[in-house]
Design brief:
heterodimer; A: TIM Barrel; seven-stranded parallel sheet; two-stranded antiparallel ribbon; 15 helices; 12% strand; globular; B: 214 residues; alpha/beta; Methyltransferase, Methionine Synthase (B12-binding Domains), Chain A, domain 1; Rossmann fold; 9 helices
């Protein structure tokens, strides 16, 4: 096997040939102030302009040495295309939804040209730019929100979860079913645009909902999504999800991107033979507040535990020191 | 009398929001002291809900429904209390910090604190440091509760505490912090007075902070 970043990453995605070292990858954003300065682009530009978006993603490979490029830094591209009012933030602030169009869990109106809306178009164009620049050499990762996360954005998290708690099953299921085709269409469009892998981010996290909620409402939809898309999928659900690892592994996805709160040894032992694991260097304590040595140690712990692809656990804080991100790459380059 | 209290308590624990009004009304009609309905049914019920949440038996959807149920109960009882007022356990300002629009944790803490008798001024989400300081000066709360859900917004809590110090307000109020990425070590590092791992712990913490404040 040629030991390119692309091949190392793709092989590890499927638990294949290992080569001399594990790949370092980022299924979620590694944009931070230091990287923005090095790339010469900033927020909100990098959410809205395909060249700026691709430029910042490339810096993850060229400046930091990650084996991946991932050009989507926000979680609101789909919600914006669906008509939710978005605050695109600034250099110090990630974008977020300002007003929820379906606070009463009313019917979602899906525009027929959804993928042509600027917030979707920009991601597809950035992926194509990356394909032209590093295709086949570096693993190109896309990212799409699942129906659960989109429900948070369209109805508001509290309204949506209250409906779940009130047992309004028909309303909840209808909303998820109306949103699911968007996930499938955007994933497939990202593959067509040049992504090697797409992250399915769907925040059915233990901080909010139980494994029984996931099993009842979302697992069947994830299985359908997995069967309808044309490429490998990394599921991203943050928080401590130790209580639902097997459910994720049975959803038909190829890898799970997980947090430090889930012990990597336990994750590998329980589901590492069924799907690949990506992660799980801690963000708030280690990457943000720790030293490069702290990061290095955690990354090595994950590697030695058998985590297939090494990276931060979730989108990193914008003030994360660039040296701490480089320490992840250094730990990976040390080899197995 | 005991069966009325037990029924109200169970309704809150099990999130029987459609039944709470009838249950509280019949307890009042049976001559039950409104204070007892609050102190012996509604508050203990939320303590159970908080514990169940902390142990992973229930999650946010169930907790939200219980909180809504409790609030409906309190709203019926409140006008009947002596002077139409509950004895206030203390005044708390609650907010999420700049850049953070995620308010579910903050809202749960607010509901739990109100249930436990605190006067809560909920400033909402995405509060600039200056705005927060302005409100602290105007309201002079006992406690300022700050929440951040995102690792991207967590550092903003530190900025608020820094500004409180700069303006000579820090020793006049207690600051409690929370949110998914926040932990005790972070709270200590930035000089907060306490950290609540979940909504129930935040209420316990608020009670302790008020005692300390004397």
């Amino acid at each position: 096997m040629k030991l390119s970043p692309h091949n190392l990453f793709m092989s590890a995605m499927f638990g294949g040939r290992r080569g001399p070292r594990p790949p370092a990858g980022n299924p979620t954003s590694i944009a931070c102030h230091g990287l923005m300065e090095r790339a010469g682009v900033t927020f909100p530009e990098a959410h809205l302009n395909p060249n700026a978006m691709a430029e910042l993603a490339l810096a993850g490979h060229e400046v930091l040495g990650f084996d991946t490029v991932m050009p989507e830094y926000s979680v609101v591209q789909e919600a914006a295309a669906l008509g939710a009012r978005i605050d695109w933030g600034d250099r110090d602030k990630m974008p977020d939804v300002r007003e929820f169009p379906n606070a009463d869990l009313s019917d979602i109106t899906v525009p027929s040209d959804l993928l042509e809306k600027p917030s979707c178009r920009v991601v597809l164009e950035a992926l194509s730019i990356l394909r032209r620049h590093v295709g086949g050499r570096v693993a190109i990762i896309g990212k799409v929100m699942g129906p659960w996360t989109m429900s948070y954005h369209m109805a508001g998290t509290q309204n949506f979860l209250l409906a779940v708690g009130m047992g309004e099953t028909a309303k909840v299921t209808k909303m998820l079913r109306q949103l699911m085709p968007i996930t499938v269409a955007f994933i497939n469009a990202q593959f067509a645009a040049g992504a090697d892998i797409v992250v399915l981010a769907d925040h059915a996290t233990r901080n909010l909902v139980g494994p029984y909620h996931y099993e009842q409402y979302l697992l069947p939809l994830h299985q359908e999504i997995a069967s309808q898309v044309g490429g490998p999928i990394i599921l991203h659900v943050c928080g401590n999800c130790s209580d639902r690892l097997e459910l994720f592994a049975s959803s038909g996805i190829d890898a799970y991107h997980f947090e430090w709160q889930v012990d990597s040894r336990e994750a590998v032992r329980r589901i590492g033979d069924q799907i690949s694991l990506v992660g799980n260097v801690n963000n708030p304590q280690t990457l943000l507040q720790g030293t490069p040595e702290d990061v290095y140690k955690q990354a090595r712990y994950a590697i030695e535990a058998g985590v297939h692809l090494i990276g931060p656990e979730c989108a990193i804080p914008l003030s994360t020191p660039i040296e701490n991100l480089q320490a992840i790459v250094e730990a990976a380059r040390e080899g197995y | 009398m005991g069966h009325h209290l037990e029924a109200i308590k169970n309704a809150v624990i099990r999130g029987k929001h459609a039944e709470i009004e009838t249950l509280v009304q019949s307890a009042i009609e049976a001559g039950l002291d409104p204070d007892r309905i609050i102190n012996e049914a509604l508050i203990p019920a939320m303590d159970v809900v908080g514990k169940d949440f902390g142990s992973g038996k229930i999650f946010v959807p169930e907790m939200l429904v219980s909180a809504v149920t409790m609030k409906a109960g309190v709203d019926i009882v409140k006008p009947l209390l002596a002077g139409g007022q509950r004895h206030s356990s203390g005044t708390v300002i609650m907010a999420t910090v700049r850049g953070d629009l995620h308010d579910i944790g903050k809202n749960l803490v607010t509901m739990m604190l109100e249930g436990a008798g605190f006067k809560v001024i909920d400033l909402g989400v995405d509060l600039d440091v200056d705005k927060l300081i302005e409100h602290v000066k105007a309201i002079r709360p006992d406690i300022l509760g700050l929440s951040a859900l995102l690792t991207t917004t967590m550092p903003e809590i530190q900025n608020v505490i820094g500004e409180l110090k700069a303006q000579g307000l820090r020793d006049k109020i207690k600051v409690m912090v929370g949110g998914a990425p926040v932990d005790r070590a972070f709270a200590e590092k930035i000089g907060a007075d306490g950290y609540g791992a979940d909504a129930a712990k935040a209420v316990e913490l608020a009670r302790v902070l008020i005692q300390k404040k004397g």
